[in-house]
Amino acid sequence: MTQPPVPDFIEGYGPVKHFTGAFAHIGLATRAAVKVCSARPGIGKVLPSIRAAIRACGLRDGATISFHHHLRNGDDVLRAVMAEIASLGLRDIRVAASSVFPVHAPLAGHIESGVVTGLATAYLSGPVAEAVARGFLQRPLVMQTHGGRARAIEAGDIHIDVAFVAAPTADIYGNLNGVGGKSACGTLGYPMVDVKYADRVVAITDCLVPYPACPIDITQDDVDFVVEVPSIGDPRQIVSGTTRVTDKPEGLKIAATAADVVEASGLLVDGFSFQTGAGGVSLAVAACLRERMAAKRITGSFAAGGITGTLVEMFEAGLFRSLFNVQCFDLKAVESYRRDAAHQAMSASMYANPHNRGAVVNLLDVMILGAAEVDLDFNVNVTLGSSGVIIGGSGGHSDTAAGAKLALVTTQLAARHHPKIVDCVASVTTPGETIDAVVTEEGVAVNPRRADLRDRLASAGLPLCTIEELRSKSQRRAGGDPSPPRAGGGRIVAVVEYRDGTVIDVVRASA
Amino acid sequence: MTQPPVPDFIEGYGPVKHFTGAFAHIGLATRAAVKVCSARPGIGKVLPSIRAAIRACGLRDGATISFHHHLRNGDDVLRAVMAEIASLGLRDIRVAASSVFPVHAPLAGHIESGVVTGLATAYLSGPVAEAVARGFLQRPLVMQTHGGRARAIEAGDIHIDVAFVAAPTADIYGNLNGVGGKSACGTLGYPMVDVKYADRVVAITDCLVPYPACPIDITQDDVDFVVEVPSIGDPRQIVSGTTRVTDKPEGLKIAATAADVVEASGLLVDGFSFQTGAGGVSLAVAACLRERMAAKRITGSFAAGGITGTLVEMFEAGLFRSLFNVQCFDLKAVESYRRDAAHQAMSASMYANPHNRGAVVNLLDVMILGAAEVDLDFNVNVTLGSSGVIIGGSGGHSDTAAGAKLALVTTQLAARHHPKIVDCVASVTTPGETIDAVVTEEGVAVNPRRADLRDRLASAGLPLCTIEELRSKSQRRAGGDPSPPRAGGGRIVAVVEYRDGTVIDVVRASA
Description:
- The structure is a homodimer.
- The first copy, chain A, is α/β, with parallel strands linked by helices.
- The first copy, chain A, folds into two domains: about 45-235, Glutaconate Coenzyme A-transferase, CATH 3.40.1080.10; about 245-510, Glutaconate Coenzyme A-transferase, CATH 3.40.1080.10.
- In chain A, about 25% of the residues lie in helices and about 25% in strands.
- Chain A is built from 15 helices and 30 strands.
- In chain A, the strands form six sheets. In chain A, strands 5-14-13-10-6-7-8-9-29-30 form a ten-stranded mixed β-sheet, with helices on both faces. A nine-stranded mixed β-sheet of chain A has the order 18-17-16-15-19-22-26-27-28.
- In chain A, β27 (about 445), α14 (about 450-460) and β28 (about 465) form a beta-alpha-beta unit.
- In chain A, α3 runs parallel beside α4 and α8 packs across α9.
- The longest helix of chain A has 17 residues, at about 280-295.
- Chain A is globular, with a radius of gyration of 22 Å.
- Chain A starts with 8 loop residues before the first strand and ends with a strand.
- At the A-B interface, β3, β4 and β17 of A face β3, β4 and β17 of B.
């Protein structure tokens, strides 16, 4: 089923810069000028309420405000701020949130009521995703990558009027950290970018400590106001500890094959660097690599990303010299970050922005990626589910795929009678040119661009096949189901931006 | 002797914004847009030589380059870079150096030859100061404060084409720190600003370590190129360990009186914060306060500044909860910074920039300042010596005076037959409105703006007098010598910028 092309102009979004290749727009970039309300000595920053802070910032209809997601599905700051904004009668607010989770359900109501008319994020799931799919958001949702969000903010493509920072620990002059307090979440890698470019920055904390709040992750020179509230979130949901290695035989088989691919690639040597998501199969790959690194006495240089307890254990076992951490996924990661100077925070820009002087993803040897779908061009969809609802988005998917020497998609061939290797993905999140191989329970398909890799894997006796063969196996497993029909010529409800700010795809409402 | 007024336009400097009060220009400020050459994955940053880096940066005649002074009088990076620039035949270079020391003598030669035609710095002593006084620099020297330099860079008033960072430790992708390597100097607070705003950033190191160079002070996303050289400086001169408490009776008497003033001011309570220079009298004040804090069981919040061993000892004795460190003055400070998370680095902007959301100086309770001269309006000169040669400059003098609740000048009444309390200072570095009191061996003069302080000191029985009385005592001590004649209508050789970028004074060549 042929899709209408991405138009040159999208109502509510503006002119489109079309995606023309993963590395077509690396080069001279510009960071935007920033307005700062400089502080007079003797004037304090603590305000009595979120409402007072919103007023002090002069927030108006049409403004853009930003949030971050280090408190994950335990975050209560977005809800609390939006409730005040709604009760103040503000309208037409655009929200730039690094991710949106089910806990942010009240945002769906503000979208329906017109308080919020725009949303940009790198990851979206739950009731807000459903509200977008139903067409309630007036402007198209802008889906970014983690690095692309940092880039957009630095470039001024997104101009933040007020950044709200959920701060597990703060002092009266706006030094912030995420390692202290009852809502400790670890690093604060996402708002590190927002606070540098927003007109106004408000820190909201449930742990106001005596000055200064060392060790400092975000410094006072970037924070205008501090508000103390009883709670910024539910600690049980902040670091939920749900990251577990898969115990399913097919998942374990895929993980073992992925580890074989890594080993055969020649990259598993001293200085090895690695990133993986927090999914069960990804963690199983990490577990396999752990054994092999230990057996071969390999010391890696770093593991990066959202940091999990699995990676912390590898670090503490001496398998990596350091960890680069944009966000903690569990308590073990928080504790390690608090304790160890070689467990290093990184901003979202340092992590993955394609328009700085060299992001951490650029030095990744191996990245283990998931997929909702992969197509014959190796394009990956982690944006759109088969029912047409948004199921997530890139997060760091496209960023790490572009940076890593070996970007491996690990996936089962089918899930719930849906094939995962398809002719054409329902939505392109990550371009196939940045994917090196797809690892399934019935074989490994190497991107034809990587003949060198194919030869290495063949020499190592890995079960190679073509992506077309995987597609056929995938359809058989799913019961012969072809790719789900993609929504046709309906209104564009989401614009999928590649990390460089070009538009790689759009999501249309069902016609 | 009446001075000609500061003109509205200065040849080689441009239009003058006149100083109109220490806090007249706090408010909305703008940080400049920045051009970045973004990095393509797979491209390295290490270049074989300084010359190669200069070429890779495309440095041209008329460009502005920047340096920092954490290696102090042991720095060899400025010399090495300037030698290559000269040998490449480049001309009309403007140098923005955070400070210039005697070790930078070769810069005087480049000024005489026209390779360097402009210089901006916060502190200048030695042969380069002499070359400026002799009128060799084509454009007027621009003298800034530490915070004013950060402000100027952020505002784009100084646009840096290439920032050169002397990095005691670096990795191949440009992560830098100052705690490792044979040239360890501690924090890197000054270039933290430069690297954010320069078109190009070159790190020069004599210790290239395996990636990543944790703990990281300057991150890879801000560094374009890395050059390894045999030596970046002379470790014996980097942290010279020359900071010693005075043993002269008059100095000790001044210090004890200053401590009495602090105690009488009511500020010496829990949460107390403090900064002092590294001079002998200043350190003696710190020693007095240490005893009193211990006796009264006071826990201060922080000590700040260039950090000395004296302050580290107070921190380790539990008298301060934290240290804010823009630069280490000695090895004890380096070791403490390496070891302790509550010994926190701060950028020059976080330290003292008047145009951010709140610098550390804004929260200082007490600042102990030196002076070459103080006049009847409490204006302080630390710029110009009696012979008309530049003897230093503000550094953080004006910044801390503006921020601190109690800015105390400690000075003897006379030095080498020159009075130090005069009718009118030879050059205004720090405006009198930001000085609260002058402490001498024969009494304390409180600024008439601080009647509240005068009353407190009077109640405490401190030896108060007027600034006019101090002036008379000072002249008697010096042997009746009046203020030295100030140079007349000669060419302007230096422009003294206040921290907000306004011009507070100029230095003229002898007519």
